[in-house]
Every structure is written in structure tokens, then in C-alpha cells.
Amino acid sequence: MIALITGGSSGIGLSIAKELHKLGYAIILVARDLEKLKKAQKDIGENTEIIELDISTLENCTKLYNMVKPKDIDILINSAGFGLHGKFLEQNLQTQLDMIDLNVKATQILTKLFLNDFKEKNYGYILNIASTAAFSPGPLMACYFATKAYVLRLTEAIAEEIRQEHSKVYIGCLCPGPVATHFNDLLGVKFAKAQNSDELAQFAVAKMFKRKMIIIPTLNHKLNAFLNKFVPTKVLLKANYNVQIKKINNAKKNK
To answer: What's the whole-model pTM score?
Structure first.
């Protein structure tokens, strides 16, 4: 049994890799930072392979797929991604496009490639990592929220296609709230009630094997996701703007 985890050198990806390793899976970690990959490999232990690769291009996603295809992957975790705070017009355009390439395009490409193999053998698990950000618009994190909404809706639609075909393949989407990982350092913000990534991973893996399509880890975040369906968009926009501007201002004060 083999699990492939992108973005597996840190954060949620690494925590999920550790959880699957405990369950007896051989692990393949994919990320761009070789030193972090080596550390993650050491932390997880035996039966852990690392691949240093930037998967933000079609060429490299295809390269990765061809590298691991002979190993007959059982689980794909699409965890690679990053976020960016700030006003849309003030953010670097190339950075925004890089985010779309990694958060959206890489997830779509790898999902398509591995799903085809999984359908042929009528077995396999794909877990895409989105966020509770997927359930509402996100001023001051516009591009990030939009990428996660794409991942969520893509996963839901594919899951229904698979269900209609009576396939035994699973595809689901993990939608965590703030998690205590290196991701927050990259954003330059800290969350007062960030969830522990190892606890999140344990919850997510358990729900994945129970074939839960949308995995939201806490009652509070489940309630927020539900209520977002009924709150007027203008109200959501104003509320989310106020939340993000407070985080940005707090980050500036703490520098």
C-alpha cells in the first residue's frame, strides 16, 4: 500500500503522511525544498521516499505521474499550495498566477491522471486539500479563497460522477479552518485558535476511509460553512474583510 502526498514536506501534508505511515502505508513525499523533504523523511521513518519537484507546471505533474505510475499508488493527497494576504491590486501578478498554478492546476492535473488509473482498477483514494475559505468570498485574500472554492467544487462534481458510475474509487475534500503550520508564517499572520495539524490529520484520514466527501474538522467550522449558504453575500464580504484586515493589522503590530 502506497500513498503519494504533494506538499508533504511540512504542514497538513506531512501530518497526513505520518498518520498514513502509522497505518502501514509506504509514503512518497513531493515538494520543492529538498532539505525539508529530507527532514520529513527522517521524521516519518522507513518506507518513505522523497521526490524534489515543483509541480506547478503540466510538464512536472506529468513527470511525477510517470515516475510513480509503476509503483501502483493507492492514495493521492493533493496538499501542495500556498496563500497570500493583501489587496488584489497590490499583490504581484506572477505570484497570484503561481498560486493558481499550484493550488488549482496541479490539483486538477494530478487528480485527472490518477483518477483514470484508479477507475481502471476500481480502487483508490484521492483527498484534495481545500479550506473553509472555499465556502465564502475572501476580500484581502481574493485569489486564495477563489482557488480553494475551485478545488471544493471540482471535487464535489467528480465525486458525483463517480457515484453515478457505481465506482469504488473515493474522492473527497478536506476543508480545515486555521491550522498551526508553516503556512501561517508564510502569510505573516497567526491565528489564536489554530488547530493542531497532527490532530487534523488523524481526523481527516479517519473520515477519508469512511468515504466522507466533504471533511470539515470542527463543529464551529461546520456551522460557519452551513450558515454561509444563507447569509447575504454583501454581509459575508464585509465580515470577511473585517476579519482579514484585523489579521493584517495585528501582524504589522507584532513585527
So the answer is: 0.89
Which parts of the chain are beta strand (E)? 2-6, 26-31, 48-52, 75-78, 125-129, 170-174, 179-180, 195-196, 214-215
Q: How wide is the angle at C-alpha 149 spanned by C-alphas 61 and 25, nearest 5°?
A: 50
Q: Are 77 and 5 in contact (CB under 8 A)?
A: yes
Task: Give the separation between CA 140 and CA 246, rounded to whole angstroms.
Answer: 11
Half-sphere exposure of 248 (CA within 13 A, CB side): 13
Count of beta carbons in the 10 Å neighbourhood of residue 62: 14
Predicted confidence (pLDDT) per residue in 163-209, tens digit: 999 999 999 999 998 754 444 444 444 444 567 889 999 999 999 99
Tens-digit pLDDT profile for residues 94-138: 999 999 999 999 999 999 999 999 999 999 999 999 999 999 999
- The DSSP output letter for 90 is G
Classify domain 2-253 at the CATH superfamily level: NAD(P)-binding Rossmann-like Domain (3.40.50.720)
